[in-house]
Amino acid sequence: MAPPQRRRVFRLGSWRFQVSPRLKDAAMTCATTVADTMIYVIGPILICFAMVIAGCLTYTFFYVMLPMMKKSWNESPYWPLVMSMHVSYVLFILTNVLFNYFLCVMTSNKGLVYERVVREIADATGFQYPETLEEVAQCKQDFEDRMILRMERRRARRVAADEASSSNSNQTTTAVPSVAATSGNNMTQRRGGGTAAPTTSPTAPAPRGWMLMGATEWGFCRYSNQPKPPRSHYDHVTKTLVLNMDHFCPWMFNTIGYLNYRYFVNFLIYVCIGMLYGA
Q1: Half-sphere exposure (CA, 13 Å, Cβ side) for 193?
Q2: Average pLDDT of the chain?
Q3: Measured on CA atoms in the order 247, 249, 255, 257, is the torsion positive or negative?
Q4: How confident is residue 238, by pLDDT bands cut at 50, 70 and 90?
Q5: C-alpha closest to that of 234 among 255, 261, 213
Q6: Span 4-13, mean pLDDT?
Q7: Rounded to two decimals, what is the model's pTM?
């Protein structure tokens, strides 16, 4: 029998109110929906804004900085070589920034490349990847049974540890009562005229499924209904299961994961190099 869900107590100054788990889940769902909608709207705007920034910086270099540099090097016999070196360097940085930005935005975290990489991971970890709907349903059932068994074992160990701890504390309290406990009971008796009620420690929240899994163990994604490779997460914005998911970048309007991580890092490196050159 599942334990009853407890209401969470919130405090705001002198106000104290309780929130039911259903109301909390509904509020979280509403907040997530609003955040996802805002990301869908802001993502394309940020991409256009990034292109405008790149265009403005390119215009500033060719129409402001380059004429100033040409004027300062005009008297030198090597000014054509110097100008060509600066232009080549800026074009190299600009090309790499735009190239990696485009690939980071356009690279999908699903498709044929994802399927090929997932099967390579399955072969490396010894996991039998399901191919048919029946095998997928069996994989889901095996995962749920395994998680339930581990939950029950964890709960049994916690109950045994709590019982052992409570028995040891009761023996210690009976043998040598502490001064703090005695004074607390006396204060309670003087105020209410009765005996002090025993305090119970709050129960720890149930662990999530990924907390019970190993580093190289496969799971099952209930959102995408497919086997979940190690170190993969479901992205609620793009609605895909992402390998080695790092984060969702609104400037890229894409999730940074295994398939586009190198483009994201290269983009940051060349942007930093370009900023150092401009400084």
Answers
A1: 0
A2: 79
A3: negative
A4: confident
A5: 255
A6: 57
A7: 0.70
Residues ≥6 apart with Cβ < 8 Å to 237: 36, 39, 40, 248, 255
Give the residue carrying structure tokens 């002090």: 196
From the number of C-beta atoms within 10 Å of its C-beta (0-12, 13-18, 19+), residue 69 rates as middle
3-state secondary structure 244-277: CCCEEECCCCEEECCCCHHHHHHHHHHHHHHHHH
pLDDT band at 210 (very low <50, low <70, confident <90, very high): low
Q: Tokens 């940020």 belong to which residue?
A: 46
- DSSP letters of the chain? -PPPPPPEEEEETTEEEEE-HHHHHHHHHHHHHHHHHHHHHHHHHHHHHHHHHHHHHHHHIIIIIHHHHHHHTTTSTTHHHHHHHHHHHHHHHHHHHHHHHHHHHH--SSSHHHHHHHHHHHHHHT-----SHHHHHHHHHHHHHHHHHHHHHHHHHHHHHHHHHHHHHHHHHHHS--HHHHHHHHHHHHHHSSPPPPP-PPPPPPPPGGGGS-TT--EEETTTTEEE-TTEEEETTTTEEEET--EEETTTTEEE-TTTHHHHHHHHHHHHHHHHHH-
pLDDT the model gives residue 186: 47
| Beta-ladder partners of 12 | 15
Which has the closest alpha carbon to 147: 230, 224, 217, 203?
A: 217
Is the pLDDT score of 107 beyond 70? yes
Phi/psi of residue 171, each to 5°?
-65, -40
* Amino acid sitting at position 19: V
Q: Work out the average pLDDT over 218-232.
A: 89
pLDDT at residue 96, as a whole number: 95
